[in-house]
Design goal:
By secondary structure, the chain is mainly α. The chain is about 55% helix and about 0% strand. A two-stranded antiparallel sheet has the order 1-2. The longest helix has 29 residues. The chain is elongated.
Length: about 400
């Protein structure tokens, strides 16, 4: 298992090295994703870990180069240290703390990374700096509320989500976000009333396109739904960021900032979304469509046997997690690369590397990210639009209030 995992990391780094602009930030982005896959870290803990890794690398590099403001690191600047050694050491410390089961794999990658850095005082100082910064990030997130258990008591009435099992992580509704003032800072208003034309429109769209027996959904749309499993959603945006970075030739410091913003943004989507989901507690299409005769809307016809193409997640529908991720990622990437960067890129399936999807721009990726949740039968259109708007607001706030260019 270890050797196959290390080979996977080696292959990822070989691919990254083929770009003239690969550096330790993009390398350790790839390594972190591989390590967490090996450690079976997914969902909310995955996004938290990625934010911690990249914030630690960004603060380590900034402590050396001073080009941006720090997030959490304290202490004097270290202009004589190796920024690369500091970033590598910081990433290693975070990953070992979060995925201790993969220590051998992490250390294998760490040893390989250090071999590329010249020995000497700068390297030694950089390694010590990275470890200190990682410890500061770990301390900052130690009481972030992501592991506090909470009892959830559902109610049962039309429009309300009715779980069959306990939700996977309702405690994220009370977790400490990155930079934001609170989980509820961008909480949206309620979804459309069940009696409204907007609800009927969304109901009938997902009923027509999202069922297993849909004849309106195209073969290409079905293929897209199957590709965009939960495991591909967030890594795809990091993959897009790596390819955009290579095309634009970002520096080490610029990459550190980009990936830290993207990591914090995606982590915030879980926190903000869980706050909104468990505030509004809106039902999923499968419940709505099987109870279409109880919603008080004459334009929604019940189908008691309707089944969505995607498996329905065990948490409320509104707003869409995938759409918030799309919004925050687009917002951050456009803040760095300019409005609507039309650079083609490819995203790869996390399980089968032979499966890929190609896009002409991040806008095209964003649209498919949203649409597949309707085509897969697990979200209403309004939830996607509201979610994307939330993500854009989170991105704007992060960019305006953290990791700013030093004056």
């Amino acid at each position: 298992m270890l050797h196959s995992a290390v080979r996977a990391i080696g292959l990822c780094l070989a691919i990254a090295a083929s770009s003239a602009h690969a550096d330790v930030v993009t390398d350790w982005n790839t390594i972190a994703i591989a390590v967490m896959k090996a450690g079976k870290i997914t969902g909310n803990p995955w996004s938290r870990a990625m934010a911690m890794v990249h914030v630690a690398m960004a603060d380590s590099i900034t402590s050396v180069q001073g080009k941006y403001t720090l997030y959490v690191a304290k202490g004097p600047a270290a202009p004589g240290a190796s920024a690369e050694a500091a970033a590598v050491a910081a990433a290693r410390q975070i990953l070992i703390q979060i995925v201790p089961s993969q220590k051998a794999m992490i250390d294998e990658a760490y040893t390989a990374a250090l071999k590329a850095i010249s020995d000497g005082a700068a390297k030694t100082e950089g390694m010590a700096l990275g470890e200190r910064v990682a410890a500061a990030v770990i301390a900052d997130r130690a009481a972030d509320g992501t592991n506090v258990p909470e009892t959830y008591r559902p109610v049962t009435s039309p429009g309300v989500w009715i779980p069959t099992t306990l939700p996977i992580a309702p405690q994220y509704a009370k977790a400490k976000p990155w930079v934001l003032t609170g989980a509820d800072q961008f909480r949206p208003g309620p979804p459309p009333a069940l009696s409204s034309p907007a609800y009927a429109r969304d109901y009938n769209e997902v009923k027509t396109l999202g069922g297993t027996k849909s004849t309106a959904r195209t073969a290409e749309q079905t293929q897209a739904v199957k590709f965009w499993t939960q495991g591909n959603i967030s890594p795809a945006w990091f993959e897009a960021a790596r390819q955009l970075s290579a095309a634009k030739g970002l520096t080490l410091a610029e990459n550190a900032r980009l990936f830290a913003l993207l990591g914090m943004g995606i982590a915030n989507t879980f926190i903000a979304d869980w706050d909104a989901k468990f505030t509004h507690n809106f039902w999923r299409p499968i419940t709505a469509i099987r109870n279409g005769d109880n919603d008080g809307n004459d334009a929604t016809e019940r189908d008691a046997g309707w089944v969505p193409l995607n498996a329905t997640p065990m948490h409320p529908e509104y707003p869409s997690q995938a759409a918030i991720i799309a919004g925050v990622s687009v917002g951050i990437l456009e803040a760095v690369f300019g409005p609507k960067p039309a650079i083609p890129f490819t995203v790869t399936d996390r399980v089968d590397a032979k499966l890929t999807r190609k896009f002409k721009s991040i806008a095209e990726l964003s649209e498919e990210h949203k649409d597949v949740r309707v085509w897969g039968g697990i979200h209403f259109r309004n939830s996607l639009e509201v979610g994307r708007d939330m993500g854009l607001k989170i991105a704007d706030f992060l960019v305006e209030n953290s990791l700013k260019p030093a004056r």
